[in-house]
Amino acid sequence: MKIIQTELPGCVVIEPAVHGDARGFFYESFNAKAYADAGLDLAFVQTNVSRSARSVLRGLHYQWPNPQGKLVSVLDGEVYDVAVDIRVGSPTFGRWAAAILSADNKRHFWIPEGFAHGFAVLSDSATFVYQCTALYDRAADAGIRWNDGDIAVDWPIAAPSLSDKDAKAPFLAEVPREKLPTYSPR
């Protein structure tokens, strides 16, 4: 397993060791001990799977309170995956990091609690997996506008297909600070 740091401390890309031959391949998508040895002591309570068509953009989503950390990956297809630091007081507040996740590269992206998350589908379709550290909480469900100019995510899709909820999400500057996660140095 290889850990690749991003521009956002705590957000990392994980490349599993893949073993394969002409018959196919095998890899561990999660191993609690190996992850803990790499500094990622994670406990998951919910796993979600979504399927989306080309040019669908989902996000930027977060939960507050009851934040969710998410280990995300793609089983089929390819996505442009984004994490945004929305923790009030963080030195990287409002900054983002991205990774290409695909069935071919088998990469995972760890998005810690306190970050907003979204992805755009680059292939004809994509099957996306989220392993979450907290249960979904409808009352805490929130979002930031995908095209917030202050964040300026460089999405590879100019005219994405959006849900009404995502199209109407507030800009980060419009969200009251008490409705955002707070940064606490470790």
Q: How would you summarize the topology of this molecule?
A:
Elements: E1 2-5, E2 12-15, E3 19-21, E4 24-26, H1 32-37, E5 46-53, E6 57-63, E7 70-76, E8 78-85, E9 96-102, E10 108-111, E11 115-121, E12 125-132, E13 141-143, H2 164-167
Antiparallel strand pairs: 1-2, 2-10, 3-4, 5-12, 6-11, 6-13, 7-10, 7-12, 8-9, 8-11
General description of the model:
There is one protein chain. Helix content is 5%, strand content 39%. With 186 residues, it is mainly beta. It is globular and about 55 Å long.
Please give a quick description of this structure:
With 186 residues, this protein is mainly β. The chain has helices spanning 32-37, 164-167, and strands at residues 2-5, 12-15, 19-21, 24-26, 46-53, 57-63, 70-76, 78-85, 96-102, 108-111, 115-121, 125-132, 141-143. It is built from 2 helices and 13 strands, in the order ββββαβββββββββα.
Largest sheet, strands/sense/barrel: 6 strands, antiparallel
Strand order of the largest sheet: 1-2-10-7-12-5
Cα Rg: 16 Å
Point out poorly predicted stretches: none
CATH superfamily: Jelly Rolls
